[in-house]
Amino acid sequence: MTRSGTVRPGGRTARVREAVREATLAELAEKGYDRMTVEGVALRAGVHKTTVYRRWGSVEGLAADALDLAVAEPWPVPDTGTIEGDLRELTRLVLDGFADPEMGPVSTAFVRASARDPVVARALRAFFAARHEQSALLVTRAVERGELPGDIDAADLIRTAVAPLYYRLFVTGEPVDEQVADRAAAAALAAARAGVFRPR
Amino acid sequence: MTRSGTVRPGGRTARVREAVREATLAELAEKGYDRMTVEGVALRAGVHKTTVYRRWGSVEGLAADALDLAVAEPWPVPDTGTIEGDLRELTRLVLDGFADPEMGPVSTAFVRASARDPVVARALRAFFAARHEQSALLVTRAVERGELPGDIDAADLIRTAVAPLYYRLFVTGEPVDEQVADRAAAAALAAARAGVFRPR
After folding, report:
1. CATH code at position B101
2. Which residue of A96, A200, B9, B10 sits 20 to 30 Å from the alpha carbon of A85, by its own alpha carbon?
3. Are B154 and A154 a contacting pair, CB within 8 Å?
4. How many inter-chain contacts (A to B, CB under 8 Å) are there?
5. Given an 8 Å threshold on Cβ–Cβ distance, is B186 in contact with A191?
6. ipTM of the assembly?
């Protein structure tokens, strides 16, 4: 443990932070954002609640920190060899993430919580900005392979590919399946090929 | 007033329903879904609260009925003469709706409420199904003008056109503007022209 208490990989501070994050995700999945408590997270993490209160302050702080840690995690940017395959894998990743019995409820809880807490909203926005930026790599590769024109707003292509899934999941409440995911990927690719995502 | 108490345009039952709906929307805009009450709606509508409880049951029932009435309302399906213009006008309608100081908070409140109440969720889903179906008219016109192929899933073209706006508004929290709306419309059109929305 460093004397200043800063996070160091493998250090005690990092271990506590990771334990608290795991507990936050588990409580979110089990109880939802409205019913989770700082005490519940502390108990599950095996950390004294005064420590949790001092370092995270509140449920908002716990959720925001869990999102901050998620940004830093490795994330499997699709690399199938074609932009068509990569975009399809990307939308399938979103689909599978929400269908996952553990990840799905947690992801949903984060989006719902962002509607109520500015702190969570800020963290969620940063999380998506990071995901858009990471995913832009598959666009860069496609440009290098000559599959897409070089003057392209990669983040907006990514947003367009995933948006129809989120629209159904969080707005209309319509079901999602692989056909929905594949069509969303195909629509974004057609738009990219037509030059819709040229930077403005 | 009909003896059975069924809704009849211009009848007392219809007037009460309309007054209660107006009050529901005003309370939603002013207080949000979490803080609105049956009593508050009754007071604002000038209707006895026992009447509201008997007919609508709860805040969920009030919100769901307001959505049901919204489905039946005339809605300005764009008719600019080209599919390009119509889709752009459609995404601008969504943009302007959420930017409107009265309609915006109400629309947002409905989407947020659907996350918590199955009754509202069902009504919201029916509302969007109706909007998708109404908007399909602009696709039908484009097919008749020979602008788009006839074998097309119109509702999915509409969903794809509006989804990027909703993704920013309700998921990532990113700002929306006319450029975002126009690009979303252009992306959906490019996908339609490429045959992505052929029915499966």
Report:
1. 1.10.357.10
2. A200
3. no
4. 107
5. yes
6. 0.91
